[in-house]
Design goal:
globular; 4 helices; 21% helix; 213 residues; disordered N terminus; Aminopeptidase; protein-N-terminal-alanine acetyltransferase activity
Length: 213
């Protein structure tokens, strides 16, 4: 399971139908700047060396958060080791990793990933993780918006998918807000801290995407 920003299950509906989130302000179109994609609140840029220690400490050092963020058991890492989850390989074809920053001041707020990129089926998966102090501010919705734009417009993909734990209401809201619809539940598919949890699968097709919603 990929890393997600953390926390009601998204209702099954077609994009554009009545939703408890319809009264929220529209998603701001993505803007381009040198080495950065910009949304309403966040920018996605390349991963800097200084980002890695902050992201590892904030997202993975805590046993509970680390266990929820990954589909494998938590384990400690030595301070000077290269963390493969965060060190970017610019030659990797199936994975694009960004650092997410706040537009005002470009403070690091988390990470964003487009992964399992399949150029034959033109599909990919979206993942993100926000620092604990940056949650609950609407950043997750904006990160999903920018990643969706990148996937459909820049990469020319046809389908994007998100999987997240069923109790991760924040990620479900961020996906729903950007037009993703719930396609199914993987029952008891994730072992997390002593119990099996369900995962929700959400998808969005390019022809159903409305970037101005």
């Amino acid at each position: 399971m990929p890393p997600w920003a953390p926390d009601t299950v998204v209702p099954d509906r077609s994009y554009g139908a009545t939703s408890p989130f319809d009264d929220l302000p529209p998603v701001v179109p993505v803007r381009y700047e040198t080495c950065m994609l910009k949304g309403a609140k966040v920018g996605l840029r390349a991963r800097y060396e200084d980002d890695i220690e902050v992201l590892r400490t904030e997202l993975y050092d805590d046993v509970v958060n680390g266990s929820r963020a990954e589909g494998r058991p938590w384990r400690p890492m030595t301070p000077d080791s290269k963390d493969p989850r965060l060190v970017v390989d610019d030659k990797a074809q199936g994975l694009v990793q960004f650092s997410a920053v706040e537009l005002d001041g470009e403070t690091l707020i988390g990470m964003a990933t487009l992964y399992d990129i399949d150029t034959h089926h033109r599909s990919a998966h979206i993942g993100l993780g926000l620092l604990p102090s940056c949650r609950g501010m609407g950043y997750g919705t904006d990160v999903v918006a920018v990643l969706t734009h990148y996937g459909f417009v820049v990469r020319g993909l046809h389908r994007l998918q998100i999987e997240t734990l069923a109790d991760n209401a924040a990620m479900l809201r961020a996906a729903e807000r950007n037009g993703f619809v719930r396609e199914g539940v993987l029952r008891s598919s994730s072992w997390v801290m002593g119990e099996f949890l369900d995962e929700v699968v959400l998808g969005l097709l390019a022809e159903d995407w409305n970037p101005n919603h």
